[in-house]
Structures are given as C-alpha cells and as structure tokens.
Design a protein that fits this description.
With 500 residues, this protein is an alpha/beta fold. The protein has helices spanning 2-23, 28-51, 56-68, 72-81, 84-89, 91-107, 118-131, 146-159, 176-190, 209-217, 231-234, 285-301, 309-312, 336-346, 362-373, 389-396, 399-404, 438-442, 455-469, 476-480, 484-494, and strands at residues 139-145, 164-169, 194-200, 221-225, 245-248, 252-256, 274-275, 277-283, 322-328, 350-354, 377-383, 408-412, 416-417, 421-424, 428-432, 446-452, 471-473. It folds into three domains: 2-82; 90-109 and 138-315, Endonuclease Chain A (Endonuclease, Chain A, 2-Layer Sandwich), CATH 3.30.870.10; 336-499, Endonuclease, Chain A. It holds the Pfam family PLDc_2.
Length: 500
C-alpha cells in the first residue's frame, strides 16, 4: 500500500514537472532541476524493479520502457509492470482458496497411480502435490471441436438445468449468441433455477448494460470481476480473469478456449473461421472446476457457496483415464508455465503444442530445445495471422531458435487458431484457457484440465493431425531468407515479449 501511494506521488510530480517545464516561463535552472528530479524518480523505479528479482530479460525490458518512453513508459509500468502487486492484492483470496482446497482434498480418496507409466506418474504426482487437488478417476471427458459443437452442448445442458447454473467468462458479448444464451438464463431463472454469472469487466466490455439489467431483473445474480471503474486507484485492472467456466447442477462442466460471441462461431467476416477446442466434463472433476467458480464468486459477491452441500455434492461416473482440473493466477502460488514445463520435461516420444500466442519464458524454451535434441518429436502450431501486431511478430521471433533445434513449426492457414492444447507422448494432454505467453503465466486467472490416458486424448490427436492438413510447415531455409523488414518487425515485437 505504501509503495502504491508513493507511485501516485511520483506520477503527480512527473505531471506537474512536465507542465512547469513546457508551459511556464520559470528560470532555466529550475527546468534543469525538474529534469534531474524526473531522473531520480526513474532511477528509484528501476532500482525497485531490480529488487523484485525478475528474470534479467523482463527487468531490462521494463528499464528500457521507463528510460526511452519518459511519461508513457511510467504510466505503462504503473499499470502493467508491477507484478509484485498480485502478491498483496490477492493474498486473502489465495490463502482462503488454499485452505478450502486442502479441506476438500482430505475428503477425497487418493487414487492409485501405480498403473501409470513412469513419465505419467511423474507428472501426476507433481500435479497433486502442487495444486493441492487430487487426480480423479471417476470422470468422463468429451472434446468439443469449435464453436458449433461447444455452444450446442452448452445450450442443451443449460435448458435442462434443474437446480443451478453457474457461469464465468472472460469475454461475453451482447451479440446474437450472447443474447441467445442470456435469454436461456432468464427463462431458467423464471422457472426457479438459481443462476449466477460473473464476467471479466475488461474482456466483456461489449456486454451491454441493458443486458445486465435484464438478467438482474430476472433474479439472476450478476457480478463483474475487478470492475475497471476502480482500477485507476487499486491497479487491479491489469489482472484479468481469463477463465471460461460453466457448471450445471454440479453434474456437467465446460472449460476451454471459447468465450461467448459470434466470432467464435466464425460469423465475424474480418476474423473468418475460428478454430478452437473446449472440453465437457462429467463426474468428479466437475466439482473441482466448480470449486474454482465458487472461490471466484465469493471474491466478487461475498456469497460463500463452498460450505453448502447442495453445491459440493460429488456426482461420480464411470471414468476413463485420469483427470485433474487446475487453476492458476494471482490467487494461487503457482503459474501455468510450471505445469507446462513439467509436462514437456516428462516427454519421451512427442510434444505437440497448439496455441494462438507463443511467447514462452526461458525455462520452456530450454525444455523444448533439450527435448528436440534428445530426439523427441516437437511440433508447435500457431495461427498464420494473429489478432495483434506484437503477438504475431513476437511469436514469429522465436521461430529461428525453434527451427535450428529441429522443432517443427506449423502455421495454421484455415482461419484464426485459438485453441490451447498440449499433447505429450500421445497419452497425456492439457486443454484449457492458458496461452503460452507471459500474461497467462503471470497475470491472468486461468484454468486447465490435465488428462492422462483415455479416448479423449486420441480425439485431440486426431483433431491435431487434421489441423496440420490446414497448416503450412515452415521450412528453415525459406524462413531464413525472409526480408529485413520482416526480421525488423520480429525483433521490435520481441522487445515487448516480457509483457505480452
């Protein structure tokens, strides 16, 4: 709190100094003094950055931003660069979540991991130890390919809800799909079904106030996650809830890459075809997914659901393989890069990755390089055209390093590739909301489902192979011959890789 107040005092001094320097006729010696004062402030910020002990690359990026972009850089640092804030702002939520997860885990049966192969058991043990949750064997999973399959299933189960509907989305638009789902929620609420809905304020900025009023009028409980209107003073708006969760009656759950909007059905002409993957869960793992929603709901609304048996009753089914749902973000002590890294280092045969944004940290890049050098087949699939200059060319800036190690890089050309998939050795996989970038690793609230064995993984493999047919394999020689302009774009975008 003290440091945040000091930051705003610095901001006030900088703005006052700029005004005095450019718009008043004070003596030149005073102007030199103001320049010196600005230098002192920037030095203090840089020293503070150094004390946070980030990676050298990240620290240097922010130092460059502060030094070369005098005023704008300080604003950018104030609201995007201070990762230490998440440790203070979400401490209470983090401690509460961990306490409740431990209590829930104590009530669960510890699964027998002995049938697993050594690399699978290695990863499963790590998951259980770090996430404070347990592998589930009484869970059935279903792959939903693209928006049509996903939203058909979601709408079907929403309409058949008998007790409650709980939804949490990063992006929820007031377009035709959004309004259709809102209409279903209103209809179910009129039938006496409990409906709770939370959305990320920044991601869902196109969710209209009239639609929110319609839901509230229908007795739907609606709460925004980290409202922007308070962001200037508490700096929370940089930490976004990127999770996509739907839980119905505690029996079925949905998680994956798809938000709610017409573009996810391929109806946006500018974006075109939208390639994505979602997962439907039935059985024990739904309760873990539900607990993540309930923790977030208590944070935004103050309403505690986790101690109510009506919302925590398990609904086991005949399972297929091992499933574990894991949340990461400012409200946990782990980040998704650790889970991805552990998956990658456990691989003995193959590593297949599909992600819209590939801006990995040094640990993951090193793990991929070593795996490829050991003879593990490494494939990385990214979209040909991305939705942002920095993300597109920042991603491409890593291609040369990957290609030199013999890693296959595929550029998806059919449309925009948005799925977040990792498949290891053909018998382990991850499907969820976390991209392979720094925001998902350090800033966003994320949730992934990790799978070991089962037909679902075979479906993911089949879909990945189909996506390769719609992709272009980047050849090293041709890529190295790209123009100086392209290389310059990549190098410029890579300067910002620490904040993408």
């Amino acid at each position: 709190m003290k440091k945040r107040r000091l930051d705003f005092i610095f901001l006030f001094i900088i703005l006052l100094s700029i005004y005095a320097f450019f718009f008043t006729s004070i003596d030149v010696h005073w102007k030199y003094a103001l320049v010196g004062l600005y230098g002192v402030i920037i030095f203090i910020c840089m020293y503070s950055l150094m004390l946070e002990n980030r990676t050298p690359e990240s620290t240097l990026v922010w130092m460059y931003v502060l030094f070369f972009f005098p005023v704008a850089g300080f604003f950018f640092y104030l609201y995007s660069g201070q990762l230490y804030l998440k440790g203070h702002m979400f401490k209470k939520k983090r401690m509460h979540n961990r306490e409740m997860l431990r209590k829930m885990a104590d009530k669960e049966t510890t699964p027998d991991l002995s049938p697993l192969q050594s690399h699978q058991r290695y990863f499963a043990q790590y998951l259980q130890c770090v996430s404070l949750t347990k592998m589930n064997v009484h869970t059935k999973t279903y792959v939903l390919k693209n928006g049509q399959e996903t939203f058909n299933e979601i709408k079907k189960h929403l309409q058949s809800a008998k007790q409650f509907i709980h939804m949490e989305y990063y992006m929820f638009h007031s377009d035709s799909l959004g309004k259709e789902i809102i209409d279903i929620l209103i209809k179910k609420a009129s039938e006496g079904i409990e409906v709770r809905f939370t959305f990320d304020t920044m991601g869902s900025f196109t969710l209209s106030g009239s639609d929110i009023k319609r839901m509230k009028k229908a007795n739907i409980k609606v709460h925004p996650f980290l409202p922007i209107k308070y962001g200037f003073f508490n700096q929370k708006f940089n930490f976004r809830n990127h999770r996509k969760i739907v839980v119905i009656d505690g029996e079925v759950g949905f998680v994956g890459g798809l938000n709610v909007g017409d573009e996810y059905l391929g109806k946006n002409k500018k974006i075109g075809f939208w390639r994505d993957t979602h997962l439907m869960l039935k059985g024990e793992s739904v309760q873990t997914l539900h607990s993540i929603f309930m923790f977030d709901w208590e944070y935004v609304s103050g309403e505690c659901l986790i101690n109510n048996e009506a919302y925590t009753k398990p609904h086991p089914v005949e399972g297929e393989g091992f499933v574990q749902v894991v949340a990461t973000g400012p409200d946990t002590q782990e980040n998704m890069s650790d889970y991805y890294y552990t998956m990658i280092t456990s691989a003995t045969k193959s590593i297949w990755i599909s992600t819209p944004y590939f801006v990995p940290n040094e640990a993951i890049r090193t793990a991929l390089r070593i795996a490829a050098r050991k003879g593990v087949e490494v494939r990385i699939m990214v979209p040909e055209i991305n939705d942002g200059f920095l993300t597109q060319y920042g991603t491409r800036s890593y291609f040369a390093e990957l290609l030199r190690c013999g890693i296959e890089v595929y550029s998806y050309r059919k449309g925009f590739l948005h799925q977040k998939i990792v498949i290891i050795d053909g018998d382990m996989a991850s499907v969820g909301t976390a991209n392979m970038d720094m925001r998902s690793f350090h800033l966003n609230f994320e949730v992934n489902a990790f799978l070991i064995e089962g037909e679902t993984i075979q479906t993911l493999i089949k879909n990945y192979e189909e996506d390769i047919e719609d992709s272009h394999l980047i050849k090293p020689v041709a890529f190295y011959k790209r123009s100086l302009v392209e290389r310059s774009k990549e190098s410029f975008a890579r300067l910002f890789s620490g904040v993408l």
